[in-house]
Every structure is written in C-alpha cells, then in structure tokens.
Amino acid sequence: MAKDLIILAYSGGLDTSCILKWLIQKNYDVVCYIADIGQNEDFDKAKQKAELIGAKDVIVEDLRKEFVINYMLPGIQMGLVYESRYYLGTSLARPCISVGIVNAAKRLGAKYISHGATGKGNDQVRFELSVYSLWPDGKVIAPWRLPEFFNRFQGRSDLIEFAKRHNIPVSATPKAPWSTDENIMHISYESGVLEDPGVITPNGIYKMTRDLPETDNYPCTLDISFEKGLPISIKIPSDQEKALVISDPLAMVQTLNKIGGQHGIGRIDIVENRFLGLKSRGLYETPAGTILHVTHLDLEAYALDKEVLRLKKYLQDKMADFVYNGFWFSPEAIYTRKCLELSQESVTGTVTVQIFKGNVTVLARSSNTSLYNKDLVSMDIAGGFSPEDSTGFININAVRLKEYARFSAVTKF
Amino acid sequence: MAKDLIILAYSGGLDTSCILKWLIQKNYDVVCYIADIGQNEDFDKAKQKAELIGAKDVIVEDLRKEFVINYMLPGIQMGLVYESRYYLGTSLARPCISVGIVNAAKRLGAKYISHGATGKGNDQVRFELSVYSLWPDGKVIAPWRLPEFFNRFQGRSDLIEFAKRHNIPVSATPKAPWSTDENIMHISYESGVLEDPGVITPNGIYKMTRDLPETDNYPCTLDISFEKGLPISIKIPSDQEKALVISDPLAMVQTLNKIGGQHGIGRIDIVENRFLGLKSRGLYETPAGTILHVTHLDLEAYALDKEVLRLKKYLQDKMADFVYNGFWFSPEAIYTRKCLELSQESVTGTVTVQIFKGNVTVLARSSNTSLYNKDLVSMDIAGGFSPEDSTGFININAVRLKEYARFSAVTKF
Amino acid sequence: MAKDLIILAYSGGLDTSCILKWLIQKNYDVVCYIADIGQNEDFDKAKQKAELIGAKDVIVEDLRKEFVINYMLPGIQMGLVYESRYYLGTSLARPCISVGIVNAAKRLGAKYISHGATGKGNDQVRFELSVYSLWPDGKVIAPWRLPEFFNRFQGRSDLIEFAKRHNIPVSATPKAPWSTDENIMHISYESGVLEDPGVITPNGIYKMTRDLPETDNYPCTLDISFEKGLPISIKIPSDQEKALVISDPLAMVQTLNKIGGQHGIGRIDIVENRFLGLKSRGLYETPAGTILHVTHLDLEAYALDKEVLRLKKYLQDKMADFVYNGFWFSPEAIYTRKCLELSQESVTGTVTVQIFKGNVTVLARSSNTSLYNKDLVSMDIAGGFSPEDSTGFININAVRLKEYARFSAVTKF
Amino acid sequence: MAKDLIILAYSGGLDTSCILKWLIQKNYDVVCYIADIGQNEDFDKAKQKAELIGAKDVIVEDLRKEFVINYMLPGIQMGLVYESRYYLGTSLARPCISVGIVNAAKRLGAKYISHGATGKGNDQVRFELSVYSLWPDGKVIAPWRLPEFFNRFQGRSDLIEFAKRHNIPVSATPKAPWSTDENIMHISYESGVLEDPGVITPNGIYKMTRDLPETDNYPCTLDISFEKGLPISIKIPSDQEKALVISDPLAMVQTLNKIGGQHGIGRIDIVENRFLGLKSRGLYETPAGTILHVTHLDLEAYALDKEVLRLKKYLQDKMADFVYNGFWFSPEAIYTRKCLELSQESVTGTVTVQIFKGNVTVLARSSNTSLYNKDLVSMDIAGGFSPEDSTGFININAVRLKEYARFSAVTKF
After folding, report:
1. Are residues B199 and B83 in the same domain?
2. Secondary structure class of D190 (helix, strand, coil)
3. pLDDT tens digit string along D367-397?
4. Which residues of D are catalytic?
5. What catalytic activity does the UniProt entry give for this protein (chains A, B, C, D) (predicted)?
C-alpha cells in the first residue's frame, strides 16, 4: 500500500532534521519544503542534508519577491505595528510561506503538512491558520505538540543523541543561546538567555545592523517615493552626476537594509503579548522596514484628511493584531485590508529622510495629493480664513462644557 | 465710573505688548498675567515692560511644579501622543496656565480675560475652552479675532509702528523667521519659513537639544522608576560610590532634559492636523518627555494584561485628541483620565535605558506587578503549559476560517 | 445694475415666506426652491404663495426617488442608527435636498443660497456643510443667525405682523404647538410643548402611524429581500393566487409605510445630543425605515462573519454620527461609506417578518451567502467538529486568566 | 485509599444524571451542586434523584438574589447587549453559578469540578473560564468532550438506555424538540427543530411571556427609578390610594417579569455568533430585562454628556463580548466594568414607561443630574445662546470640507 505523503517545512536545523527522520520512521513519504524568504542560509547544503536523511524530494523555492511585494510592502502601506513597536517581520512571512507549502502539497497530492514550530509560540498558529484557510481539508502534523514526540525529545540533548544515532549531521558550532527567525525584513531573537526581561542582552547579538558606536559617521540622505501608500522607489544622491534610483521592490528593500544596517537602524527590545496569552521578550532588527514605516507615516499624515486618518488608525491597529495572531487569510483581515487600501488612495508623494546614528529623521515631504494648504495655514496670509469664525467655533464648543461646568462645579479641578 | 478689569495673558513680546496698550486705549484696567512654565524668559524685564506700557498690575506666577506634576507627568502616565508622534507639550500647558489666570481673574474680580493667540491656531481654542470650563460666566476678548484689531494690524510692521508710536520697547534683535512656544516639557517651532513642508528646516533652530554630530560620544545609562504609571524617580550611576537618585518631579524633568539635550533626544518634524481643520507643519523637541514616554511604554507592555492594554490604547488615543483640541476640562476628558489612571494600577517598576546619539534604547525592565511569567514562556521548562492544548486552540480558531474558505474559495488569494 | 440672485429653500410656511419677503426687500432676486421628498404638502399652493410674495421663480423638484435610492436605503444598508435609537430620517434628507438646491444655484448662476433653519438646530449645519462641500465657493445666508433679522423677529407674533403688513397669506389654522419635519422616511416632532422631557406627549401627535389601540387586529407577514445589504423587494402573501411583489424602491417604501402605519410601527420618544452640544427631545415615527432596519440587522447577523460584523459595527456607529452632524459629503463619510458597502457583499437573502401591534418580529431568514452551517452547529451531528479541541481552546484561553488570578488573587471578587 | 472528590453541576436532567452515574463508576466521590437562579424546577425532586443515583451529597443553593444584584442589574447598568440584540441572560448566570460551585469545591476539598455542557457550546467556556479564574489550580472534567464518554453516548437513546440499565429515573414526558436554559432573567431556546434559521418556530414555545394575541388589552404604565445606572425601584400606580413601590431587587425583577409576561415583552429570534466561531440560532424571552434595558438606555441618553456616552458605548460593546465569551472574571472585564460604573455616576432619575402589546414605550423621564437644559434648547428663549456663533462653528467645520471638495472635486458625488 502506498504511503501517505507529508510536506515538511524544513529549515535544515536540528529540530526539523529529527522531525524528518521521525516522520520517515512513522512510515510517511516526506517531501521537504524550504522557502527562501531572504534568510542567510546555505540552501544547497540544507537540501543535501534532507536528502541524506531520507527525504523523498526537497523543494527550495525563492519567495523573496513574493514576500516583499505581497506582504512586507503592504504591511508598510497598512501601517502595521504590533503593540506600538513591532513591525511584524515574522508574522508577515508565515502566510507567504504557507501559500508556498500549500501549493506544493496540492500539486504533489500530499495529505499532510508538518512543521517544527513549538507549542508555546505564535508561529504554529500563524502557520496552521494560514494552511487551514488555504486548504480547509488539509491536515497538519505538529510533532512538538504530540506527547509521543515531546515526551521522547525533552531537551536538545535528546535531539542530538537521536541525530547521531541516525547519522544526521549535527553542526559543530555550538548553538547560540537564543533562537532566531530571519528573513529579508527582519531578524528576531528570543528564548534562552533572553527570557529574563530584566537582563541586559549580550553584545554581538544583532546581525543586520551595526552597534551605534560602529555606525557610519556621515549621514545618508535619501528620497523615498510612495504611490497609494506603497513604496515605489528610492533615490540616493551620489557624488556622480546622477542620483541612484531603485524601483525594483526587492532591490529597494535590500538597499535600505544595507543603508539601515550601516547606520544601526531599527532595533527594538520589547516584551510582547503572544496570541496564546503568554508574555515573551523579543529583540528585533528591521532596518529597511523601519525606514519605510517612518517615512510612510509622515507622508500619510501629510496627505490624508484628519478624520480619515483616525478611522485608518483604528483599522490599522486591528489589522496588526489580526496579522500577529495568524489571521492574514481570515474574513476580517481580508476585509480590513481592503478598507486600509482604500484609505491610501491619496498617499502619493516623496519623503526626504536622513539616516544617521540609529535615527530616521524626516527632513521634508512633498505630494500633489496632500490636503495641506500653505496659504490657508499661513500666519501671514488670510488665505480665505475669517478669524471671526473661530470665535463662533469656540463658543459653540464651549456650550457643552459650560453646561457641564455649571452642573458639576468642575471649577474645583 | 470704574473701568472693567481685564486679565491679559502676557508674554512680553510685541503682540501682547501692543494688545496691552490697545486694551488700555479701549478704557480697560489691565492686569498682566505671566505664567512661568519653564520657558527661558526674563520675567523681571517682561514685568517692567508691562508696567511701562501701563498695566495696572503684573502677576508672575511660577507654575512649573504644577505643570510637571498635574499635566506633564500624567500625560506620560496616560501615554498621550497626538497623531502617533507629538507629545502635546503645548497642549498640556494651556489648561495649566488657564487655571492660573482664571484664579487670578476671580481673585481680582475681573470681568474679562484676554490673550494674544491668533485666529487660525489651536491655542485660542485650548485657552478659551479651559477658561469657559473653569469659569462659565467669564468672558474672553481675543483681539486677533476682532476685525477692529486685525484690520488695523495687518502685519508685523503695523505692530512695530504702533509700538514705536506708543513708546513700547521693541527688541533690537530681529525676530526669528518662525514662531516658538516654550515650556519645561518642550519647544515648538512653526510658521514663517517652516510653513512649506517640502523645505528642509534651517540649521540652528533647536534650542533644548544638540544636533546629532555635536552630541556626547559616551552613552548615558540610567534607571527610571514608575509607580502606577507615574514617573517617580531616576537613578543615574556615577563614578563615585553612590548613584544619583532624583525623585523631585521638577528636578527629575530638568535632569532628563539636560541629559536628553546632550544626546539630541526627542526632535520631530511633522505635519499635523489642527482642531480647526487646517494642516500645519511643526517642529518639536521634547527631551525629557521622550525618554519618559519610551520607558513608560515599555514598562506598561511588560506589566499590563494584553486585553487591558488594548482598551487603554483606545482610550489613550481618544484622550490625546481631547487634550490637543483643548478639552482637558471636558466631561469626556475627565472621564477618560479616570479610566486611564485605573488602567495603570499595576504599572509599577523600573526601566533601564540608554541615552545615546538621539536614541532612547530600553535595555531591561523589572516589575513586581508584571504578568510576565518566565517559566510559563520558557522554551526549556513546561511551566504548567500543555502543548496539546495548543492544537485544540488552533483547531477551534480555524473553524470559522475553514467555513469562510469553503464559502468564498479564499484559496485563490 | 443687476441684482444678486439667491436661491431660497422654501417650505411655504410662515418663516420662509417672511424670509422671502425680507430678502426681496434687501434687494435680492430670489428664486424659491421646493424639494418634494415625500412630505404631505400642497406644492402648487406653496408655489403660488411664493410667486405672490414676489419670488422671481419657483422650482418644485420631485426628489423622492433620489432620496429613497441614494440616501434612505443606503442608510438601511449601512445600519445607521444615531445614539442607538434614531434612524436619521431628517439627517439623510438634508444632503439630498442640498444637491438639488446647489444644482439649481449653479444652473441659474446664483451667488447665494438661503434657508429658514434656526441657530440652535442641526439642520443649518447639515444644510450648509453639504452646500459648502458641493459648492466650496458658494455663500449661505441664514437670516435666523443675522442679528438684523433675529432682533427684528423675536417671536412668532412679529412674523405674523410682518406677514400681514406685506400681504403674505397666513394660515388660518393655528400652528401646532411643536415643530415638524416630514419626508417619505419619517416625521419628526420637537420644540414647544415637547421641550420638557418629563411631560408625556399629547395624544394625536403622530401622523404616519396609528396609536396601538387603533392598529389592525390581524398581523401582516411578509418577506423582505436584500442584495448586498440593500432592500430590493418585498413580497406580501395575498388571499389571491399570487403574492404581491414590489421591487420599485419608492413603491416599496410607500407600501411598508402603509403597512407599518396600520400596525403602529416605528415610534420613538427620545432625548438626543445635537451636534452643537445641546440636548433636545424629539419624537419620530419611521414605519418603513423601522421594518427595513430590523430585517436588515437580522440578515446581516446571519450572513456576516463574526469579526467582520464587529468592524462594520464600529464603522456604522461612526457613520451615524457623521450623517447626524451633517458630514455626508465629508472625506470621512465618503470613505466610511465605501468600507460599509464592502462589508455588505454577502448580505443577500430574505427575511420573513411579522408586523403586528407595534412589533416587527423576525420569523425566519434565508440566504445563499450566509456563513451559517447547520451541520456544524447541530447538537445531533458532529459535522466535522471535534469536541476535544474545545478543551485545548478553553485551556489556552485560561492561561492568561490563571496568571492574572494568581497575580491579583482575583478569587476575592 | 480515599477517592477523589468531584463537584458536579447537576440539573436533574438526563445528561447530568448519566454523568453522575458515570463518574461514580469511574470511582469518584461525587457531590452534586444545584444552583437555584430562578428556573422553574422541582429542587427537592432533583435532590432525591441525585441521591438515588449515588451522589455523596447534594447541595441546593439559592443564588437568585446574588444573580439579580451582582450580575443581572449590573448588566443593565452597563448596557450589555450582544450583537445589538441579546441581553446575555445565560452568559450572566454562568459566572454566578461558578462562584457558587467553586466555593463549594474549596469548602469540601474537592479536586475536580464537572458539568454537562457540550463541546460546541458557549457554556462550557463560560463555566470553565470562570472556574479557572476563581480557582487557578482547579481541574474541570467535561465528559461531553472526552472521547471515552461521547463515543459511548452518541445520541439521546444511548443515554436513555444507560439510565434504564442503572435505574436512573427517566421523565415520562417526552423531551421538547429543542433545548432550554432558564433563569430569573430569561429563558433561551435553541437546537433541535430550531436549528434551521429558515424555519418559523412552532407555536407554544415561549414560557415567560404570552403571545401577542393573548396579551392584556390595557396598557400598564409605571415608573422605574435608577441610581448611578442601577435600577433601584419601580412604582406602579393602582386604583387604590397609594401606588405600589417595590425596591427589593428580586421582587422588582419578579414583578417586571410578571407585567412583561402579561404584555408579551422581550422576545427575540436571532442568529448569533458563538465564541467558538459557529453561528447558531437562538430564541430568548427576557421580559424584566427588556423593560429595564429600554428605560436605562433612555435615562442614560438624557443624563450623560454626549462624548462620555460615546466612550461608554464603545466600552459597553466590548464588555458584552467579554461576558458572552465567558470572560467575566478576566482582567479586561474587571477593568471595563470599573470604567462603565464610573460612566454612570450621573445616571440617576426616573423613567415613565408604558408596557403594552409587546411594546416598551418610554413616555417621559426626569433626573436631577441630567445635562438637559430646557432654556438652552428652547426655540422660544435665547437661553444664553448666540445664534451668530453657529455661523462661525459651521464655517470652521466647513474649512476642511471645502479643502477636500476643491481637492477631489467631490461635487461629482
């Protein structure tokens, strides 16, 4: 009888390598799926390793453009910030990878999808909710939540022993005392020595960005252009005649990562609330993402009507939660995304920004679709404004306050 | 017949000096009221000037402690940020000054209050709504909104001519080509050459903070402690034996301003939406306020329950609008403030922060009232957590998504 | 020299008749504009009266279809209810009339628009904000806010005297001791003897609906169908062979008004908050509107995803305020309306409803686009649901609660 | 060895009787806990039945006062309505019962709590989240979610067979083809023949309220008084000299239930969204609750400031979800409840209401703490209001709209 086929989200690391072997032992055919979303990884080596362990096949798929265009940049456009600080670099990647692996599963006629995410984390949720949305009849096997598996592998040493026994190569370099998730948008660090929020993090942890003392001593000034809220190009002045203009989304992000990295942009060290109700401490570095968010926020405030801005802000905070919690493909996220895109119709223009010593400083902004009216606001020009009107405006606003004051003797405040 | 008494909010500048004279010409008795809220000003000189012009009396009142304790620090506690960026330094000062001037008006039996705020700005609204709340039967005279006044004084040159004619001293140093509002929390800059949001602001504009290239080359690390969300002390390590601990609110803010200033902390250049419906560009520097906001936000996320945090966030955004728009003494602001204070019951603890090159970097935080549970979140300890439960949690969350996917063939997304 | 042309929103009543005369005396050419939005009015008589007084021309425009299709029914679709009770019958009519009068003003080259709305009410705001949105360069003359006018006409007797002196016909029937606004959607009653919220309203006030003791003794059961949230047809069973189906929007509303009227549907007596900050008491009767709102709400809850419903609810409450306050043509209302329409994509189906003795009772509902899944929810069928999953779901939701309970000893509650 | 002690939430019905027996067979000591929250039940008979089956002890606790005072009336005060229609009669009862059973469990030194709620419903969640909040170390056994149990008892016939085999009395009267939850606040009906939302419900289903044709032919008019949002007394005029005044909370609710029942008040037939993501159809009758909600809403709108009302509304919608989902003892619900109570400080006064033919009609309201100002709103009295101010108010509000209109040529709308 033919074996059931499983697609395993494979990273090449110890956990998923052991899971691969374990699934084969369970009598499954296993195809490994490796998504390239910009992490610094030797994909050939990972592929060989999986084949060595016994994978029926190994798929390596370059999803970098897909990730940048359909997840990261819309995340900027929508202004997604989780709990006021986190730009959702991991949360945005999960649905992207899920599309890749579900497509593979359907193509190959697989019955199951498996992954190495653990039982306390967000990623299992994001991954599985995306899979179930994309493939309602699909089934997910999460070994780290199966007693049979997690009772057998109670610590890293159990995994190493299992690996050695089954000729699975184990990296000679000792594992960092924290865990990491990396893609073209960001790297996150958590667990291990980082679990105590009162302990200052060790030096040398960050990889995309330089420490402030090591950053460049000359600021970088550049122009970032947006169309309907989406970053469309960056322009970097150069000593030569012509400025460098980059409009390929992937190259744009890579360039901003490089500049941001040189200037130490986009690090945060926070305690956040996981969807499961646990609090965890995470460190993130998001160089390009930070530059794009800061500039987008500036252009948006410049272009949008005041009240539309407030409605958009409400929806954006909701959407950040949806995305963090893994609901990218939910009805509410699909709906909210449409509404947020609608809000960005006039967020078109250019922001001039200086990148220096960890700071993203907006210097100027321009837009043909901004509601800003220089004459109207000018102290030197009437601009069609009648100052007497302000008296009526204030007096009418005071009607309610006076009533309340008389009523409650608020004057004692 | 006795003349009617007016209390004039007096700054010593050209506008309010001319208004003072104009009111006297209108046959009022005028008492000048100068609030010291930490602005860099020669109060004696201003007093003499007012007396010279003909003020019946001049009151100089030191409201710095009042401002810090009852407005600035509660603003931190409530997390007030207008349109995601502005810490409301001016908006918080207006109700404080209004209390001072209304109390003076009542004490002296005045019939009117007058001020030099212009007709397009926010401050007239904040000032008058506060006055009317505190003194519903009071009356405000705003010369810049009276045709008789604004038609006569159509530009700065008209004021200067009037001043010269009436022996009002005019400062020899030319006025900066922008206007400024200053207090212990911040300095704002707007108008004049800043009115074009596309023009990069000139060098040398900022006064509280150094430019990044001029900042100290060694970071300053300090501990900031909060009780129920209010900053209560800062602790600065020193080379000597004992760290410096400051818990006097005013001294705390002054010290943080000094440190923040040396490290270039807290500058923003934004376009904001005024209450009157105009967009304006403003520059702000808020050194101590920025350090306190960043650390408070960190401690709050660490201490508070996830869902309480979201409710608080909603109320905080509302409150920021109320304060910006001048509704500090409104029923909705009084109510919201109580709710926000309730949310801070457990926001008690200490944040360790590094101040360096324009960056406020949280390094660590501790709290006895945080809901953070290291064992619960640990990757190495079960901590009472059953991974199997996550499967049920995910599956139930997927019920709705699968229905929707089946229904709408969302898989095409 | 040619006189300036004013378009006056004319009702035929005493106020606007005197205003018409007064404007003519002020040396304007006045064209009267009468919108037929379904009020019970003799338009020919009103026209003749205006001509008699001296109107240069009188335009009577039938806006009933326009009002029903573009304002009333979208108000149902969006679920607009002000302060939980008022269906906005007047608020929705103002922008509709404004379009009519502004188009007339532009067509005729008028310089001004005038109206008889008073200074404390909402309608002046709704009317003028709509006019200024549609015609930013237009000017509005509101006599009831001009001291010259309101000082001269301090009460109804002044108007009557003026009318008599200028041969303006004054109705012989005494004015009702309250004021009324009527259109095809509703009639409102306020002011006069209704101003005291503690006084029970007199009998015989309502005109569209019967008092409960006078209502029909047999219920009326009918089907109402919606497409994307918009009512598209009603089906009334009859004794004859075929049920009566009405899909013309105007006829549909008229029929529901008739049925609702016979059964005493849709009266409310409330105190509401006006935009100007005053509280006022209003009585409303909205027969068709009430039937449509109740049935739409039912279908929407049946069809929509749970979380989309909550987002829509938030936006709907915002939109109700926008519309009440006169901001129909504002950027925020235009934006919110688009979002609300997006939310209704799947609100298609039919609701069976019984109309009887003041009650609109939903009996059943059906929809091909509802997310309701009978098998899934059935107590008798598993329907793909695993009860064990609920355990995990509950346990994970309890993680946060247990932490909080341990932390705060919530058990004392 | 001593057996482990379980407290079983016992109803006397077939399900919990079988569960009782099954738990005894599983070698537990079982104490049955019956909460009297106003359901129509023979508690003595239920007690005898449990003893007969083998319960170690049976506790019958009268929680009616507790339920009315600490859950139902605060639910009115907070204005809790789920998805715009459901007054949460069942949701409010669960935490109340949970307090009772947890107290019993702690008192008796029990290790487990068990219940008969099923795996698809809300009540398991409400019950268990409450238990875990009150008793974080407690454990819950939910047989209907254990495969061992639900595989054995796949339908009602399996339960009946088991009951017969073990001499458990089975009611001779056939079970209604739907399930019911009853307490002093309401009765709910769901499942069975009600599962198809397109089927009109059979006659004779409701028990607390009469069908409209059977209701009294004379209206009942009464006064309901509130203090800080809580109902404190009702006054019913009588033919005799003195009106009947009831201020005991339990008697007040019982009386209103009786009046409401005679007049057919408070029935709804809705499709709602369960916390687990399923949609279900439910019928509810809530006579007293409906009368109290309608009158509270009226008084609240009369008394509260406009903007406070909006903040309260937001929090109230959140709280309704918290309560429906079982989070009564959560940090967010405890916090929100405090905020909502704060909002009610001035909601004190009396509403006169007519109860007739299914309608709760507010006739008048009075309050010493209302912000309503009759002079201010009067059309006949200036009341300190300057109509000219409205011009400025409108013009300033139009500034933003005109900008937008010029910008977007909104005139095409």
Report:
1. no
2. strand
3. 998 989 888 888 777 777 899 999 999 999 9
4. 15, 94, 123, 179
5. L-citrulline + L-aspartate + ATP = 2-(N(omega)-L-arginino)succinate + AMP + diphosphate + H(+)
